[in-house]
Amino acid sequence: MYCDSCPKVLLLKDGSILKKNGIKFPQLQPSDEGWEFYDRHLIPTYEKIEALFNPCSCGGRFRAWAVPRCSICNDYIFGSAPELDKPINWSSKHVFVTVSSFIDNEHLIDKGT
After folding, report:
1. What is the pLDDT of residues 66-79, one digit of tens each?
2. From CA 52, how far away is CA 64, in angstroms rounded?
Protein backbone atom coordinates (compact mmCIF):
# COMPACT_ATOMS: atom_id res chain seq x y z
CA MET A 1 0.00 0.00 0.00
CA TYR A 2 1.22 3.47 -0.80
CA CYS A 3 1.33 6.37 1.63
CA ASP A 4 -1.34 8.95 0.83
CA SER A 5 1.11 11.82 1.49
CA CYS A 6 4.61 10.79 0.35
CA PRO A 7 6.41 8.26 -1.91
CA LYS A 8 6.87 5.60 0.79
CA VAL A 9 5.41 2.13 0.43
CA LEU A 10 4.14 -0.51 2.85
CA LEU A 11 4.98 -3.91 1.38
CA LEU A 12 2.35 -6.53 2.15
CA LYS A 13 4.47 -9.67 2.16
CA ASP A 14 2.77 -11.86 4.77
CA GLY A 15 0.13 -13.76 2.84
CA SER A 16 -1.63 -14.75 6.06
CA ILE A 17 -1.83 -11.29 7.65
CA LEU A 18 -5.48 -10.79 6.65
CA LYS A 19 -6.55 -14.21 7.87
CA LYS A 20 -4.68 -13.70 11.16
CA ASN A 21 -6.69 -10.52 11.66
CA GLY A 22 -10.07 -11.95 10.64
CA ILE A 23 -10.27 -10.00 7.38
CA LYS A 24 -11.77 -11.65 4.33
CA PHE A 25 -12.28 -10.05 0.94
CA PRO A 26 -15.85 -10.32 -0.30
CA GLN A 27 -15.84 -12.27 -3.55
CA LEU A 28 -18.79 -10.52 -5.17
CA GLN A 29 -19.75 -10.53 -8.83
CA PRO A 30 -21.81 -7.80 -10.55
CA SER A 31 -25.02 -9.79 -10.19
CA ASP A 32 -24.50 -10.47 -6.45
CA GLU A 33 -26.32 -8.63 -3.69
CA GLY A 34 -24.00 -6.04 -2.13
CA TRP A 35 -21.84 -5.59 -5.22
CA GLU A 36 -21.18 -1.93 -6.12
CA PHE A 37 -19.61 -0.20 -9.11
CA TYR A 38 -15.89 0.69 -8.87
CA ASP A 39 -15.49 -2.01 -6.20
CA ARG A 40 -17.03 0.32 -3.59
CA HIS A 41 -18.15 -2.79 -1.71
CA LEU A 42 -14.45 -3.32 -0.88
CA ILE A 43 -14.06 0.02 0.93
CA PRO A 44 -14.96 -1.41 4.40
CA THR A 45 -12.44 -4.23 3.83
CA TYR A 46 -9.76 -1.75 2.77
CA GLU A 47 -10.44 0.32 5.89
CA LYS A 48 -9.96 -2.75 8.11
CA ILE A 49 -6.64 -3.51 6.42
CA GLU A 50 -5.45 0.10 6.71
CA ALA A 51 -6.33 0.12 10.42
CA LEU A 52 -3.80 -2.68 11.05
CA PHE A 53 -0.80 -0.44 10.36
CA ASN A 54 0.94 2.48 11.99
CA PRO A 55 0.96 5.79 10.13
CA CYS A 56 3.82 6.54 7.77
CA SER A 57 6.82 8.35 9.22
CA CYS A 58 5.68 11.47 7.30
CA GLY A 59 2.36 11.48 9.17
CA GLY A 60 0.33 10.16 6.23
CA ARG A 61 -1.54 6.86 6.16
CA PHE A 62 -0.94 3.80 4.05
CA ARG A 63 -4.07 3.44 1.94
CA ALA A 64 -5.31 0.63 -0.23
CA TRP A 65 -6.30 3.10 -2.95
CA ALA A 66 -3.33 5.51 -2.72
CA VAL A 67 -1.28 5.83 -5.88
CA PRO A 68 2.52 5.97 -6.12
CA ARG A 69 4.25 9.36 -5.87
CA CYS A 70 7.45 10.71 -7.39
CA SER A 71 10.37 10.80 -4.95
CA ILE A 72 11.54 14.14 -6.37
CA CYS A 73 8.39 16.28 -6.70
CA ASN A 74 5.90 14.16 -4.65
CA ASP A 75 3.36 14.37 -7.50
CA TYR A 76 1.35 11.34 -8.55
CA ILE A 77 3.21 9.04 -10.93
CA PHE A 78 -0.01 8.18 -12.76
CA GLY A 79 -1.16 11.80 -12.98
CA SER A 80 -3.88 12.03 -10.35
CA ALA A 81 -5.34 10.43 -7.26
CA PRO A 82 -8.41 8.24 -7.61
CA GLU A 83 -11.71 9.59 -6.40
CA LEU A 84 -12.35 8.45 -2.82
CA ASP A 85 -15.59 6.71 -3.76
CA LYS A 86 -13.91 4.90 -6.68
CA PRO A 87 -11.03 2.93 -5.16
CA ILE A 88 -8.43 1.29 -7.32
CA ASN A 89 -7.89 -2.41 -6.74
CA TRP A 90 -4.17 -2.94 -7.24
CA SER A 91 -3.98 -6.63 -8.15
CA SER A 92 -0.49 -6.43 -9.66
CA LYS A 93 2.49 -8.03 -7.95
CA HIS A 94 4.61 -5.03 -9.02
CA VAL A 95 5.17 -1.91 -6.93
CA PHE A 96 7.01 1.39 -7.35
CA VAL A 97 9.51 1.84 -4.52
CA THR A 98 11.21 5.17 -5.08
CA VAL A 99 12.29 6.20 -1.56
CA SER A 100 11.84 3.63 1.15
CA SER A 101 9.52 0.90 2.21
CA PHE A 102 8.20 -0.74 5.33
CA ILE A 103 7.42 -4.43 5.78
CA ASP A 104 3.89 -5.28 6.93
CA ASN A 105 4.72 -7.27 10.09
CA GLU A 106 7.22 -4.64 11.20
CA HIS A 107 4.68 -1.84 10.83
CA LEU A 108 1.64 -3.41 12.51
CA ILE A 109 -0.05 -1.46 15.26
CA ASP A 110 0.88 -2.99 18.61
CA LYS A 111 -2.38 -4.12 20.18
CA GLY A 112 -0.71 -5.10 23.44
CA THR A 113 -0.72 -8.81 22.67
Report:
1. 888 888 898 888 76
2. 12
Whole-angstrom Cα distance, residue 22 to residue 45? 11
Please write the tens of the pLDDT for every residue from 12-41: 888 888 899 999 888 888 888 988 887 788
Paired sense of beta strands 101-103 and 9-11, if any: parallel
Please give the Cα distance from 79 to 77 (Å, whole number): 6
Range of the domain at 29: 1-113
Question: How far is 22 from 103, CA to CA, in rounded Å?
Answer: 20
Quote the CA–CA distance of 41 and 4 in Å, as a whole number: 21
- How distant is the alpha carbon of residue 102 from its chain centre? 13
Indicate the pTM of the whole model: 0.73
